[in-house]
Amino acid sequence: MKKLLRYLIAALFVFSLAMTVNAQEKAAKEIVRSIEKLDDGLDALIDVNAKIEVISTGHQWSEGPVWNREGKFLLWSDVPRNKISKWDPATGETTVFMDPSGYDGPKTEWGEPGSNGLMMDANGLLTVCDHGNRRVYRQEKDGSKTTICDRFEGKRFNSPNDLIIHSNGDIYFTDPPYGLKDKASREIEWHGVYRVKPDGTVTLLTKEMTRPNGIGLSPDEKTLYVAQSDKELAVFKSWPIKDDGTLGDGKVILDATPWAKKGDPGMPDGMAIDQNGNIWGTGPGGVMIISPEGKLLGRIMMGKPTANCAFGDDGSTLFITSSGFICKVKTKAKGLNFKE
């Protein structure tokens, strides 16, 4: 009788799980996604009729996609679930790549304990913004984690969110408060943008932003871009990078506040840069495609809040993390550092 009961409970669990997955897949298919053209310059970057395909579902809040060129697979963070997932285009399967990806202490109630932004460094090693442990770390080839930085002037970061790696090895990253366990644990009063050099030296670049989030570099690495996830001032900003790696005076290149206040889902968040310097930045509506001069050329309308995006495959596929879904769309543009 006990064996039968255990069998029935297990069968009920599997059935419930299958129903949940089916419901998520159905919901993903029912969301209307489209491409909105706002300027003729969009035509050279993406076909307005390009198919936006859902490749993975069932995640809580997906973030930080990155394409692993050596292994030819996609990685991304599920921040609340404290995991990094992997999608293999050869099989179409999603598997857990790392668990935990962030906080590794005793289990506790926590909103965003996991990893967020991900990048591959010049040696093909995964570099991670870790909310829960309030650090930037590197995963070594043996799977171990090496802390790159976790403090500025002796004080712990808030929760490193997103990063970009310069060709000289410098890492630029943002540090908003989203991953803090509670306000009492906060040690730095501002939300900064920082640079950490290969020797571990950390420099505060700016503390003028209220909610710095996604970050990117221009193709010539002379301009730094940062998105601000603040509904009252939802902007994309740029700074010239000086010869010593610090920043000159910043300026707003696109103010997305009107779309945010109109109710379009999402805030300025993650970004990817193509070979011509166009910014593919997640924001109100989905992915905002912005020229280097700051003109909004169009939007990939995702129908849900959209966190981040990254180019992958041969460089002309844009992968998008949109709430619990992972999507992809073919582009005419190619991402930085992909061969023509």
Task: Please tell me about this protein's structure.
This protein is mainly beta. The chain has a single domain (31-330), classed as 6 Propeller (Neuraminidase). It has two helices and 27 strands. The strands form seven sheets. The protein has a five-stranded antiparallel β-sheet, with no helix packed on it. A four-stranded antiparallel β-sheet has the order 2-27-26-25, with no helix packed on it. The chain has a four-stranded antiparallel β-sheet with strand order 3-4-5-6, with no helix packed on it. A hairpin with a 5-residue loop joins strand 9 and strand 10 (145-149). It starts with a helix and ends in a 10-residue tail after the last strand. Residues 13-21 have low confidence and may be disordered.
How many helical stretches?
A: 2
Query: For the largest beta sheet, what order do the strands appear in spatially?
Result: 1-24-23-22-21
How far the N terminus sits from the C terminus, by CA atoms, comes to 65 Å
The major sheet is characterized as: 5 strands, antiparallel
The class by helix and strand makeup works out as mainly beta
CATH superfamily: TolB, C-terminal domain
Envelope shape:
globular
Number of domains: 1
Number of strands: 27
Overall mean pLDDT score? Answer: 92
Main CATH class? Mainly Beta
CATH-defined fold name: Neuraminidase
Element-level helix/strand string: HEEEEEEEEEEEEEEEEEEEEHEEEEEEE
Q: How much helical structure, as a percent, in the residues?
A: 10-25%
